[in-house]
Amino acid sequence: MLLEDEQVVVILGILIIFFMVLLTYGLVNKAYSDDYPESIENINALEMNNGDLVCVSYPNIAGAFVSCFSKSIWSHTGTIWVDPKTNVRYVVEGAIYRHKKYQHFQKIPLETWLFFNRKSIIAYKKYKGPPISSEYMEKVFEPFIKNCKLEGFNIFWARFLVQKPYYEYAFNSKYTCLEFTIILGQELGIYTKKNIYCSYLTNEIVNNGIEFCPGISYSKPIQITCQYPDLVFLKEDIKNNKKFWKN
Length: 247
Prior knowledge:
Elements: H1 5-31, E1 39-43, E2 53-57, H2 61-70, E3 76-82, E4 89-96, E5 103-109, H3 110-116, E6 121-125, E7 127-128, H4 134-147, E8 149-150, E9 174-175, H5 177-187, H6 202-206, E10 217-218, E11 222-227, H7 231-240, H8 242-246
Parallel strand pairs: 1-11, 8-9
Antiparallel strand pairs: 2-3, 2-6, 3-4, 4-5, 6-11, 7-10
Helix pairs in contact: 1-2
């Protein structure tokens, strides 16, 4: 049965009001959040190692929607991976940038990542625990890069409001960036498998509100104010993607 034009207008109106309420609620949550980093430091990229986290507070609508659920300024997380052959630091994450090379799940050079997120608040969390193998870490995240897409905001995000015990799950074709961080951490033996990956919010990762495996911990988030990028790799990316960087 087809809807009348007036019914369509009413439905669209209700949806717009709903999303406006969520947006307003998210902006208020973000404005009154008290989880800003307590310290600001210069971070040397070469000091970053496997398992370290980078966190982002997006100053846009997407960030506000995430705040609806997390009641936090933090919108996004990524995990550091060190290429064992080149010693280059990468951020492993789920995100969509204008650059076609860096969309959905990817490993992106740290310096390029910092440039993409330069207008946001960026924080760094140091992993404290047994060394993580680069080869094993790559084995865990590679299937996501090859087979998965990033899930955008939708009504099914309501699943984050319910905690569910961990169970053996089938590999999905879509995940959020948050779910990817949790799965990666659980498979690397950082987070316990107490609850399933969709049982956590961004603020729990950033503020150490998630249960760690024995002998594992993270530092408090440290805001990054100045980086020491390796210009060789940044220039290489500019050279290989002239059209993008020209814009």
